[in-house]
């Protein structure tokens, strides 16, 4: 298997049709639960349907991988674990759904941010975005009542986070990301994992002046052009698809509204290990897979963005592992994108308001860490 090199504003145009009913966050892959995990699962977690009949060898392999993950998380410290070869190897082998929530907490080192009692205090601070939030949740999670509940865990988690980080503006992609994490973890664990994912990966996408999204969308459009110039011209020039809106729908939600459930969870597994470069490669593979449809539809321009943000399930490999392998094999000029980033940043800073957040890390593969563990605890000191 080839692996990649490590490395809303209210007036903004929307893609309403892309978010009417995103895929469920529960993965069907690796969903054989252990007796302990099944009995301890919170009753608000929607249980997956029965997996296909497994052979004894498949069940044994699943249990073995599950055991290896449990032992690894007990013996390694989360800080710096992503850089260790044994962690990278086992992530690429797979993550059993029974331990996936714990694995995401481990890979993001979320527990280092946890301060007992802070989540409940933050969640009690009602904000003025609840009405908009509930409207979004009705559309985003039509089959998951526990995620739509006005007094439920998802609203509680989002309110807590927005109370903690006032410079982040609410958007429905926030709800998608939080809902996916919450589907696999108890609410307080989910909250701190969500905080870690935001701090380490995507928080700048939701800033009041989201220059990170502007930069990444221009870099991604350049990556598409390098991969397939004719497709880039068709998509961005003839069809007029906005790279900004496409990347917002894809990257800000970490593909929650795009991929089938089992594919989504595997993309998250690897993304939390590899970083932004893996999202770029995922997007490139989706475009490559959609090319035939894009080229063959004479009346397609009006619906191009909707198609790409809510593609049909048959666009993807039936096997999520095959899909992940294809993503990993996508060639991308990482070094050239890294050199191009500061030039795009400088140009955007000249044409946009100076209050935009500063981009600290210029590595295309490793997005900037917006808030360190120390800064998170310092920001919450007054709450605790």
UniProtKB/TrEMBL annotation:
Protein name per Swiss-Prot or TrEMBL: RabGAP/TBC
Pfam families noted in UniProt: RabGAP-TBC
Organism field: Dacryopinax primogenitus (strain DJM 731) (Brown rot fungus)
Molecular-function GO terms, alphabetical: GTPase activator activity; small GTPase binding
Region of interest (Disordered), residue spans: 1-55
Gene3D superfamilies reported for this sequence: putative rabgap domain of human tbc1 domain family member 14 like domains, Ypt/Rab-GAP domain of gyp1p, domain 1, Ypt/Rab-GAP domain of gyp1p, domain 3
Biased composition (Polar residues): 20-31
Family annotation (SUPFAM superfamilies): Ypt/Rab-GAP domain of gyp1p
Alphabetical list of InterPro entries matching this protein: Rab-GAP-TBC_dom (IPR000195), Rab-GAP_TBC_sf (IPR035969), Rab_GAP_TBC_domain (IPR050302)
Stretches assigned to the Rab-GAP TBC domain: 94-275
Signal peptide start and end residues: none
